[in-house]
Please model this.
Amino acid sequence: MGGRVSRVFRNFNVENRARREISKEKPTPAPRHRTARLDTMADSPEIKEEVLKKDDRFLTLLKDVYVESRDPPVRVKDGGGEHLPSKQEEKRLTKLGHLEALDVKKVPKGKISLVEALTLLNNHKLQPQIWTAEKIAAEYSLEVKDVNSLLEFFIPFTVLEFPKETKKAITSHKPKMLT
Model:
């Protein structure tokens, strides 16, 4: 209901108000500054001649100037979170085995891919005496403290299968026949 009322007031006498606004005299623009007229003066031959003329006094002074510059030692400030590729990172080939198609082929040293992380966690879980933190760190070019943290806080999933006795117990119950 409120929309109808406001529309009536908005559309009231629209044509007359529009004609009145159109018929008003347009305001005169502000006068231009005289520097805006320099572009028209640039075409004159006197100004072109003055610009192209060489001054011998200034040329001799310019020839006497000798500049010797030395670069100051470069200091690199820490850019916060920015990472600019200043040097090439060493990369190593991944050790993937049969999951080769699922992952990247080259990884920077000090990092591992997702498939490698799952593989090394599973190897450590199955054979912790063989796959120690030191051996994993040497194998994947990682730091020992990072590998210890990885082995402590990340555990791969285990799949548990229910014994067949529970299946047997469930299937031994026969449904009642309706007659």
Remarks:
- DSSP finds nine helices and two strands in the chain.
- The chain has a mean pLDDT of 77.
- The longest helix spans residues 114-126.
